[in-house]
């Protein structure tokens, strides 16, 4: 019996540049997340080399989040208008240049500035990469490609601290940034193989939206970063007030524009709410906790930075495998349902790690890390799928930008939350492990609430899809 391929299947199989549209966004995401997590394992060496004080150390860890979260939505909108391959190439080049600045930085101020620019460059790679996938593929092929992209998030988090710790032992902390330069140059050169794509109609530069959004997110993340040294400090309170005013202005501006950078009407779509809300919960309840875990293992369990990074690799490595295999799950299981399951598994895994004290061996963390890894991988694959499926095809990069903005803004808040909890009772090993146990509970509650909230949204997505199918049958 001969099976005829559908027109959609033929388009997927023959899409020009299809291989590059999977490989290069995946490689860019891998590099971006490795660089994002590298200081987790090298903070002490980096801070000592830059003669960084307490506040400067916080910025060494957090500065890339500011550039990343503040620019993701802007870069996504620009890519849709001016070309996704073009913005991808610019992102690769900017990452190379900013990495040179980090490698040569003589002091913490220069290094932090370089990391902020690295965040902007990484935003260009992440938003455009997923946008390229969304434009190039449809149907099952898009789900597979999005799953691979999501898997690179977990693999990058796994390899970043390990590679950085090993290179630091080999030749010092600066070597990682020279490796990033070489990888970025290679990625930029290879970008010529990508298919170019853009929206049929340009929306134009939304300057008021750009200024209010970037300013608001930057002020918020700066306040969150400085808040680790005291939440009642005048500078923190002023920054929080500025963030509230500017973000409120952004909403007001976007609601009145005919061609906004972010179409607020998308928030009436249950699938878009799942994409953005799920990403926010993942950043707040998962990335925030895991970003602090290496430091906690070093300070409280007395592991070396490399050994602690390898233990964290259990979680992120399993996340990578789970995201790759998510495409094998039955097609009748919706993305929203699987996202909720992933968040629920993350909560279970975090609770399974409870009971840590200074005398606990690292093996005690492994069962929880395995469970949480499966949950993270499943959630990452579904979030990547929802990011491109929940917006019109011509706005795929904007959908990716909104999704990732929520993820990394949530991660910045989560890191600050876990840091505050972990150090609330002191910095002795016993106090830190007590703080970790409380952080595990709080993070698990956040993930569980996200899983519960996904249920009614998933039902609304299903009802909306059934309604669209009914209308299509009637029109036929």
TrEMBL record:
The chain crosses the membrane at residues 20-38, 58-80, 87-106, 112-134, 146-169, 175-195, 207-228, 234-253, 273-298, 304-324, 336-356, 368-388, 408-426, 438-457. It is a multi-pass membrane protein. InterPro entries: MFS, MFS_dom, MFS_trans_sf. PROSITE patterns: MFS. The keyword Acetylation does not apply. Residues 21-462 form the Major facilitator superfamily (MFS) profile domain. Keywords: Membrane, Transmembrane, Transmembrane helix. Its main location: membrane. It is found in: Cell membrane. PANTHER family: EXPORT PROTEIN, MAJOR FACILITATOR SUPERFAMILY MULTIDRUG TRANSPORTER MFSC. This is MFS transporter. The lineage of its organism: Bacteria, Bacillati, Actinomycetota, Actinomycetes, Streptosporangiales.
